[in-house]
Design goal:
With 132 residues, the protein is of the alpha+beta class. The chain contains three helices and eight strands. Strands 4, 5, 6, 7 and 8 form a five-stranded antiparallel β-sheet that branches. A three-stranded antiparallel β-sheet has the order 1-3-2, with helices on one face.
Length: 132
């Protein structure tokens, strides 16, 4: 049993990239689906597919690599808020990720979104992870 599904999600992507895999399969949840959509919208992954099985479903993610250097598009996946120490932030307190080049994923009362979207809507929330 996994006690921190977000950390498991990030670790599976990190491990697949280190092994040079093209596709990674992750057990689905609504939160993981939304994080996957954000990764796709920001250009960190090639494509994704939500597949239903008899249980909770599976997310298949096609990882993105640089064609010439074979380096992964995602350089770092960093879990911020964890079950033992939750991290919350107001819109004014959102720190810039990698000097504005990265993305922070925030769980707000209006759904899961990036730090820029949360700042535009003036909502704070739990800082789930940093991606750059």
């Amino acid at each position: 049993m996994v006690t921190d599904p977000i950390a498991d999600f990030l670790t599976r992507i990190r491990n697949a990239q280190m092994a040079g895999h093209r596709i990674v399969e992750i057990p689905a949840s609504n939160l993981k689906k939304r994080i996957t959509e954000i990764l796709y919208d920001k250009g960190y992954i090639l494509k994704y597919k939500f597949e239903e099985d008899n249980k909770q479903g599976v997310i298949k993610i096609a990882l993105k690599y640089d064609p010439s250097t074979k380096q992964p598009a995602i350089q770092s996946l960093e879990r911020v808020s964890r079950p033992g120490l939750r991290q919350y932030a107001k819109p004014a307190d959102f720190s810039r990720v990698k000097n504005g080049l990265g993305v922070a994923i925030i769980s707000t009362s209006k759904g899961v979104m990036t730090d820029k979207e949360a700042k535009a809507q003036n909502v704070g929330g739990e800082v789930l992870c940093y991606i750059y």
